[in-house]
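Field reference: sequence -> structure
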Amino acid sequence: MIHIEEPKSPWEAFHMDWVTALPPSGDKGYDACLVIVDRYRKTPIFLRCHKDETAM
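Structure field:
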């Protein structure tokens, strides 16, 4: 197993994952959530979005 070094400052390393197939909510019908976790702080950020989001 390879040891992964701990980051030495915020946003040096982070994880991202999508949570999809959620029931539509809000006035824009959000049905997904992008979860970002800064490995230094270990604090999650939840961004509501649509499962068919693009980079545009």
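Note: Strands lie at 14-19, 32-38, 43-49.
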